[in-house]
Design goal:
The protein is of the alpha+beta class and about 350 residues long. The protein has helices at about 10-30, 35-50, 55-60, 70-75, 85-110, 115-140, 145, 150-170, 190-195, 295-305, 305-325, 330-340, and strands at about 175-185, 210-215, 220-230, 235-245, 255-265, 265-275, 285-295. The protein folds into two domains: about 30-170, no CATH class; about 175-325, Alpha-D-Glucose-1,6-Bisphosphate, Chain A, domain 4.
């Protein structure tokens, strides 16, 4: 079997990557007024897009008009208007304004949560409270809103609050970073040797990761590549990856492989593998990724699909353990057969 190649260490790149990851983590845990406003606007925008699904699906299920809730919202500005051509633009203004306004309120009042799930639950409860105000104080004064079914409208508000809470948590807390940790029953040196050859990485997630090409020379091995990532609903993005540093493990210091991935011109992520000494001669492997900057599209996909990314990382580590697991020896069986 050919010996696996590993890239030559580049300590300057290693320090630069470490500083970049630390800056990204620091920015994700702290905030400035401008960043908090940006987070609220983003959260309100994402929630505005998806929060109307419950009432829309309910209307379709019972054979009603899926636009009725939007037409009713338009009467907030045009109380006596009946023409859809005027009510729909008015509804868009009302929906955008209320989505942004309530997102600012939730950003200022929701308690900090450690996970996106907890933040989503808190936001959902806040959304129910918003529904009481919107439908109770405003809606009862407008006949068209008053005639809407209550439960679908309540579900819209709960969904809105849950999405806002989750997005705020992902932007302001450690939820913006994806981390997977697993104990692997293989020595750190062997794990590092396997991961140092980029050709082996595609074995860990071949179902959702398609290798399009490798960059590098024959002497030092590949230092990067072009990869197509396929996520939920068949959404795919092409990334260009590059190894920035490779530090073999020692008895006193974990090994580290670090790199970056560029998707288009506006999205950049940092990825790092850490291989430390584990129990019983094995390894403790950590896979960590953080987005340094992202386009609006990729940021939205990351926020909505973080659960998938976490699952993908966990599965990659499980596959790593399975691939490197030593084959059971047949020697004891042969010895027993010979003795018998």
């Amino acid at each position: 079997m050919n010996r696996l190649r590993r890239p030559t260490p580049h300590h300057q790149d290693d320090h630069r990557l470490d500083d970049g990851v630390r800056r990204a983590e620091f920015r994700s845990r702290t905030g400035t007024p401008g960043r908090s406003l940006t987070n609220a606007v983003l959260a309100g925008g994402v929630a505005a897009v998806v929060s109307g699904l419950p009432s829309t699906l309910s209307a379709v299920r019972i054979g009603g008009d899926p636009l009725e809730a939007s037409l009713a919202a338009g009467t907030v500005l045009l109380r006596d208007e009946q023409r859809a051509s005027r009510l729909l633009p008015a509804a868009a203004l009302v929906h955008a304004g209320m989505s942004l306004g309530w997102a600012l309120v939730l950003a200022a009042t929701l308690p900090a949560r450690r996970t996106m799930l907890a933040a989503g639950l808190s936001g959902g409860l806040a959304g129910a409270a918003i529904a009481a105000l919107d439908l109770g104080l405003v809606g009862r004064r407008l006949p068209r809103i008053r005639r809407l079914p209550v439960l679908p409208q309540l579900a819209d508000h709960v969904a809105y609050g849950a999405v806002v809470g989750s997005v705020l948590a992902a932007r302001a807390g450690r939820a913006g970073e994806v981390v997977a940790v697993r104990s692997v029953g293989t020595a750190p040196e062997r794990v590092f040797e396997f991961l140092a050859d980029l050709r082996n990485h595609w074995l860990l997630e071949d179902r959702f990761v398609e290798l399009r090409g490798l960059d590098g020379d024959e002497g030092s091995g590949p230092r990067g590549g072009r990869v197509r990532l396929t996520g939920p609903l068949g959404i795919s993005r092409e990334a260009r990856t590059r190894v920035l540093s490779a530090r073999p493990p020692t008895a006193t210091r974990p090994g580290r492989l670090a790199g970056r991935a560029d998707i288009g011109r506006r999205t950049t992520g940092r990825v790092a593998w850490e291989i430390a000494v584990g129990k019983d001669g094995g390894s403790r492997v950590t896979l960590r990724a953080a987005a340094e900057r992202a386009s609006l599209l990729d940021r939205t996909l990351l926020l909505l699909g973080r659960w998938w990314l976490q699952h993908t990382f966990d599965r990659a580590l499980a596959n790593l353990d399975r691939i490197l697991e030593p084959a059971p020896s047949v020697r004891p069986l042969l010895d027993r057969k010979a003795a018998g």
